[in-house]
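Onboarding guide, step 5: your first structure request.
Type a short instruction followed by the sequence, for example:

Predict the 3D structure of this protein.
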Amino acid sequence: MITTSDGLRYYTPERRQCFFNHERHLKYFKVYTQQNCELECTTNYTLHRCGCVKFSMPRDDRTEVCGASKIQCYNDAEDELLEEDVKFIVDKSRDYRAKCNCLPACTSVQYDAEISQADLDWKSLFAAFRQSLGEQDGAQFARLTIYFKEAQFITSKRSELYGVTDFLANCGGLLGLFMGVSLLSLAELIYFCSIRPFTILRAYRAKRRESNVFFNHPPPIIEKPKEF
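The system replies with structure tokens like these:
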């Protein structure tokens, strides 16, 4: 089972390399999986190539089912899709499946099936249950058992390796380790490089303006009367 963290929902499907169920809609399936998408892609190519589809392929009521005369046609269509996969390695524009855009599903469950078989001693089984074999004379029996191999399983989760927060944290940690730089030092650097020069320039212009006013309009001189 593969899941995807919620932090990847803001990425594009091409960047995260998977589709959420609400992002990719199929014509013949309600639930998106890569296998369903590839099957629908093969169906569309077969319909385009032969004008009909195989009986085992998904279809609507208006789609024709291929008869015996079209067996070679839909077999050739499947072979051509396999050839397109090989040609895609050389020429990226030749892949028909790439046009189908069948990326993996962000949440998927895959079962690894194993098959084992053994001889069934059904006569001993009937004898153990005390059942008569008269009516089953000459018959052959088989038993099919389906079960989970293990009661528990390990899941895989798709998440971002380095996000913006992780990148800033790593940069801040390295700068603080090798250069003694902290957020306060960065704030001081920004202040002295941007705000401080404008403050000094503004104070200089204000002082110069006051000096020009003083020289252009000197204050009046008042003389005191002399006493006799």
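Each response can be followed by summary notes, for example: The first helix runs from residue 13 to 16.
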